[in-house]
Amino acid sequence: MRILIPFLLLAWCGNAQPFERNRLTFSGGWTVPVSGQLEGAPVLGFTYGYRFHRYMEAEAGILAAIHPGPEVRGANYDFQNYDRLLWVPFGIRFVAPLRQSRVELSAGGGGLYERYSSNGSFLYGYDGWGGYIVGSASVALDRGRHFWLGVAPRFVLANPQYRRDRWFTITGEVSFRF
Known about the structure:
Elements: H1 4-14, E1 22-35, E2 41-53, E3 56-66, E4 72-73, E5 78-79, E6 83-98, E7 103-118, E8 126-140, E9 147-160, E10 165-177
Antiparallel strand pairs: 1-2, 1-10, 2-3, 3-6, 4-5, 6-7, 7-8, 8-9, 9-10
């Protein structure tokens, strides 16, 4: 029995972490409104994910759309709106590893906080809560599966006061896992 216990502990510890649990992702892409008076804009983001199960991951991050407001021009005036739209998503992602865990497909969703800020003279800032849906396809770039390259479309639904914001975002992602 004394010999069996160390072997069981060794086998248990050897399989304790068969996958990388932490994910840091930098993303960049484009977002377009499905509804509303704002225009399409470039978007940059950062996301952290913690995989608590081989097929499930909790994630949180921040996405920033730069200058989604319109530019208003006339014969004697030109208003350039220096605005930004921030989204703070948090939720769960379900992961499907394929091809010896070198390719992954994922889908998920969760809650979202939205903040629009503007220093222009014709658009006012607002904030509110909502949700998001995300899908992703990623491929490992190295044998150790630490560096990943992927693409992620998102659908953002936010409901600030007196507004209903709906955005479609597609981003390219570079991830580091450890």
